[in-house]
Structure prediction request, 194 residues.
Amino acid sequence: MKKIIVVIALTVSVLSCKKETREIDVKEKNVTTIKKDEMPKKKVLSPHATAMAMIGDAHIHIDYSSPGVRDRIIFGGLLSYDMVWQAGAHNATWLETNQDLIIDGKTLPAGKYGFFTIPSKKEWTIIFNTNWDQHGKDDYDEKEDVLRFKVKSILSETTTEHLEYKVKKTTDTQGSISLAWEKVLIDFNFIVQQ
Prediction:
């Protein structure tokens, strides 16, 4: 009977406490106090990430959610080949540039774009779309594409656990953008229009 009263009293104490939580081990009669800001946080499976660089006067910024491989087959498994992918998790990945860029011989005007891809086994289609603010590819419409081109994919011996973008400066007026995930790498060059 005493044990039941102690457990009830401790339970009431825990419920009435606003700034602390208590873990009770009835068998050992131990009470551990953990402050709320010390509580273990849930691990984010696809953390928010950015990649950016200044090339001359051009500021190139990529914003995306970075999913993990987590022992899955990504390309040709989780993501079907030859289907549009938002090139990240959750919301569509977007790229913003304050200067016109020349990519694959075509002009990408300064602005903010949804960045989509169509992965295939040997080459990918890269897509810049005017609709940058959408969940996944839910509202993707090919009619809103501003620029499309193809790049060869490169297979790597090592696994990139989390999707990673890089924007690199190669000269004062040129740079490259790369995407790596699982064992696949794609990259393409651009020129800042003067």
User: Anything to note?
Assistant: The helical segments are 2-16. Confidence is low (pLDDT under 50) at residues 4-34.
